[in-house]
Write a structure and sequence with these properties.
Blueprint (H helix, E strand, L loop, with lengths): L1 H49 L15 E2 L2 H4 L4 E8 L2 E14 L2 E10 L4 E8 L51 H37 L1
Antiparallel strand pairs: 1-2, 2-3, 3-4, 4-5
Length: 214
């Protein structure tokens, strides 16, 4: 009788342990899924600041090309978010990096329309000095909105500098390095877009069609 009780107790403990482990695993899975969902929603919100949802007819997150353009975009790998309208390219949002900020790299999203003009620029992350360099954030100042509608023709390419360097873009009092880094990075994205957007869109269509045929 005593042996049976021990066996039963052992089985019950094993079952409780198995149930507990399963519950922990399910909770972790659900938590990871929720975190990823929240991350995707935050990204989509940021992208739609640059490409409004009503200006395109595709899902920006449905197919995300990745390019290796370290010299031009400042990152070993950059995600691209292509917006289309009526089966034509409307704009591309590039992940880019200003590598020479005052306190390190500055992560950016840069939207370029098919005509080569900027849909906008947003700072994703940085470590610039609070009260000085952090004016690159939209919530701190509207400086970043000055990029809207700009292109390599407006202003001319040789004017894509801060005013202190003889260009057209404002710098901040006591913080020239930060805006200089962003202006340079955005100019580089515009050049890359002009040279590669047609091929990027062709590859995007090809991969989308391949995905549908599977």
């Amino acid at each position: 009788m005593k042996i049976n009780s021990i066996v039963i107790a052992s089985v019950l403990l094993g079952l409780f342990g198995l149930v507990g482990t399963s519950l922990v695993s399910l909770t972790e899975t659900a938590t990871r899924a929720q975190i990823e969902h929240n991350r995707q929603q935050a990204l989509l919100t940021k992208l739609e600041e640059l490409i409004p949802a009503d200006s395109i007819d595709n899902n920006l997150l449905e197919h995300i090309p990745v390019v290796n353009a370290l010299e031009e975009l400042g990152r070993p790998q950059s995600n691209l978010y292509l917006g289309t309208r009526e089966q034509a390219l409307y704009a591309i949002v590039y992940e880019a990096r200003g590598p020479n900020g005052y306190a390190g790299v500055i992560e950016l999203l840069v939207a370029v329309k098919q005509d080569g003009s900027l849909g906008g620029v947003r700072v994703v992350s940085h470590k610039e000095t609070p009260g000085l360099g952090d004016k690159i954030e939209l919530k701190r100042s509207d400086w970043v909105l000055d990029f809207n509608g700009k292109s390599l023709q407006n202003p001319p390419a040789n004017r894509w500098k801060v005013k202190k360097d003889g260009g057209d873009f404002d710098q901040f009092t006591g913080a020239t390095i930060t805006p200089r880094s962003i202006v340079s990075a955005v100019k580089s994205v515009l050049i890359y877009h002009g040279e590669n957007s047609a091929d990027l869109y062709a590859d995007y269509l090809k991969n989308m069609q391949a995905g549908k045929s599977k």
